[in-house]
Write a structure and sequence with these properties.
alpha+beta; 3-stranded antiparallel beta sheet; 51% helix; elongated; 107 residues
């Protein structure tokens, strides 16, 4: 019975830590780039786009499709950076806990 109460206490503690981590991650910003830095996208920890920078050399009428692809690539680069930070923080938070392999957190 003590183990069950201890486990429940740890679960509440873990939930509070995850809440704090989510709040911290929400304040993060990551900048991704594509085309050697010609296009840069900054997103928040909630994956909201905050800024977009486009080198003026790309603003040519016949290169719109290239620009669109670079914007998508830069956004995906920024998103991957935020996801990496989230995974690292989750891994550090759950270190030593008996969590089954492949289980995605936060719940």
């Amino acid at each position: 019975m003590k183990d069950l109460l201890g486990l429940m206490g740890k679960a509440k503690e873990m939930q509070a830590k995850f809440q704090a981590m989510q709040e911290e991650v929400a304040t993060l910003e990551a900048t991704g780039q594509a085309g050697g830095g010609l296009v840069q996208v900054t997103i928040s920890g909630k994956f909201e786009m905050k800024a977009l920078k486009i080198d003026p050399s790309l603003l040519k009428e016949d290169e719109a499709e290239i620009l669109e692809d670079l914007i998508i690539a830069a956004h995906n680069d920024a998103k991957a950076k935020v996801e990496t930070v989230m995974q690292e923080k989750t891994k550090a938070l759950t270190a030593g806990l008996p969590i089954p392999p492949g289980m995605k957190l936060p719940f």
